[in-house]
Amino acid sequence: MSDPFAREPSWDPRRFPPAARAPRAVQTLRMLLDPQGYGLALRERLGPVFSLRVHPYRAALVCSADIAANRAVLTDHERFAGGDGAALLRQAVGAGSLICTPPPRHLPHRKLLLPPFHGDRVVRWAARMRELVRAGLPELLTGDGVAVRPWAQRVALDVILRVVFGLTDPGRVALFRRALTAFAGMDNVAVLFLPRPLQRDAGRWSPAGRFARLRAAVQDLTRTEIAVRRAESRRRGGTAREDVLSMLLEARDEQGAGLDDEQVLDELTGLVLAGYETTATTIAWTLHLLAHHPAARNALIDDLDAGSDRLLKATVKESTRLRPAVYYAIRTAVRDTRLAGYPVPRHAFVAALFPPVHLDRRLWPQPHLFRPERHLAADPVAYSLTPFGGGVRRCIGAPLAQLEVETVLREVLARAVPAPAGPPEPARLLSVTLVPAHGARARFHRRLRPAAR
Ligand code: HEM
User: Fold this and answer.
1) Residue 453: inside a domain
2) Which of 167, 192, 315, 403 has a CA that sits 20 to 30 A from residue 364's CA?
3) Is the CB of 387 within 6 Å of ligand 1?
4) How far, in whole angstroms, is CA 257 from its chain's centroid?
5) Distance from the CA of 396 to the center of ligand 1, in angstroms?
6) Which residues contact 261 (CB under 8 A, 6 or more apart)?
7) How far is CA 5 from CA 82, 200, 212, 374, 431, in A?
8) Can you give the C-alpha Rg of the chain in angstroms?
9) Predicted TM-score (pTM) of this structure
10) Which residue's alpha carbon is at the smallest distance from atom 6 of ligand 1?
11) CB-ligand 1 contact for 396 (6 Å cutoff)
């Protein structure tokens, strides 16, 4: 399988959209420290499509930053293909995961993976999720200021271990939890976004060496689990389990072929990496925003107590508009083409940036305000709100993530009222994730009379 980075065209200002003149290190730093502000400023200065000269791209990351250009990048699959754009993640998830699979293999592959993520299937996990969230609540509801993101990461990982891996044995759960927390954390995965020379494995203590060691530990555990489950399925002549791993082991394509162990391994790793930090970060931002917006928070609590989930859904939409956990969706240009009139060379990496569209005042009046009620009246204009990306590569885990975020909010707000534990936190960019700078700190006051949900 060829390396999309080796095919990346070299920098030539005549063949790329306009770029800022700042050196690559400065552009990278500004992106990491103020991704939303910098994205908006570049659109203001350079137009709806520009070149971001950041590490680890040798030439540039071509960025679209308005609704029409984003729509084209996300949906015009003849010109912008997915899979190769995620090449950065290959070392982490393996080339066999859906997220790294280019067309034409992508669609049949996605079909195999769809059934366990279908909305009807996913709702069956609600009761299990509730139990996991309730088990974690004492750590959150201490009455002191707590960082919500690490708490939400623990919950999200526990959900993945049950729903995706189907683990029930507490000993195995603990083993996986330890290995995956170290491996799948964005601080570890961020190694892949370092300049290329720093990505070389220079021994045990180098970032890349640590990365390789943590990956091997996760793979060993996962291979053993796959072997155990295949043996179990053979003994019983099939499986009655509904977790994603069981379904992957049973899945057959139209020719009756199943997935081999290495494909299942890559798939599971891909699902953890795609689903764990993203969901945890969305939960963290939402509770942090509610803590800092008492009117919106009280209205939501009242609405939930009255048995409605209208405001709950609107609140999650608003949180993912203002602070989408994922900053962009990435594709590669299939051929030399133009985007909003700007040239884009074949094989260039192209990213549809979400924040410049989510904060576009032509689409969202007073875009920087947190106002969940703006989503009550009507559905958003198509492609004005894309926290899960779009087109044939739209996030496959969206129904699971939505259920999980809603379940956490319901459970927490039935028992406690979030309040600030410091100033509102700015967003930073950690690989492709938009994270709260200090872990989304908040304080949770117990409700005198918890709501019965
Ligand atoms: C709030 C949480 C989540 C957010 C914000 C999110 C966001 C995204 C985004 C932006 C994409 C790229 C879409 C595109 O290229 O157009 C994506 C893809 C993907 N996500 Fe999620 N995601 C979340 C949760 C999950 C979960 C829970 C899982 C599974 C356990 C998951 C699995 C995937 C997979 C497999 C892909 C690749 C789909 C493909 O290439 O066909 N995600 N996600």
Assistant:
1) no
2) 403
3) yes
4) 30
5) 6
6) 223, 226, 227, 230
7) 14, 15, 20, 42, 17
8) 22
9) 0.95
10) 388
11) yes
From ligand 1's centre to the CA of 328, what distance in Å? 11
- Residue nearest (by alpha carbon) to ligand 1 atom 4: 278
452 within some domain: no
- From first to last of its 453 residues, the chain has per-residue pLDDT tens of 678 888 999 999 999 999 999 999 999 999 999 999 999 999 999 999 999 999 889 899 999 999 999 999 999 999 999 998 888 888 778 888 999 999 999 999 899 889 889 888 888 899 999 999 999 999 999 999 999 999 999 999 999 999 999 998 999 999 999 999 988 876 777 777 777 677 777 777 788 888 889 999 999 999 999 999 999 888 888 777 888 999 899 888 888 888 899 999 999 999 998 999 999 999 999 999 999 999 999 999 999 999 999 999 999 999 999 999 999 999 999 999 999 999 999 999 999 999 999 999 999 999 999 999 999 988 899 999 999 999 999 999 999 999 999 999 999 999 999 999 999 999 999 889 999 999 999 999 999 877 766
Cα of 331 vs centre of ligand 1, distance in Å, is 14
CA of 205 to the centre of ligand 1 (A): 31
Q: What is the 3-state secondary structure (H, E, C) of 99-160?
A: HHCCCCCHHHHHHHHCHHHCHHHHHHHHHHHHHHHHHHHHHHCCCCEEEHHHHHHHHHHHHH
C-beta of 401 in contact with ligand 1 (< 6 A): yes
- In short, whether 159's Cβ falls inside 6 Å of ligand 1 is no
Question: Which atom of ligand 1 is nearest the CA belonging to 354?
Answer: 10
275 C-beta closer than 6 A to ligand 1:
yes
68 inside domain: yes
Output the six-digit token pair for 117: 């993520």
User: 430: which 2 tokens?
Assistant: 């950690």
Domain of residue 276, residue span: 4-446
Q: Is the CB of 74 under 6 A from ligand 1?
A: yes
Answer yes or no: is the C-beta of 122 below 6 A from any ligand 1 atom: no
Does the beta carbon of 273 lie inside 6 Å of ligand 1?
A: no
- For ligand 1, what atom is nearest to the CA of residue 110? 41
Cα–Cα distance, 293 to 284 (Å, whole number): 14
- Ligand 1 binding pocket mutation candidate from 88, 122, 388 (most atoms within 8 A of CB): 388
Of ligand 1's listed atoms, the one at least distance from the Cα of 282 is 1
Report DSSP state, residue 316. H
Residue 451 lies inside a defined structural domain of this protein: no
Please count the structural domains in the chain.
Answer: 1
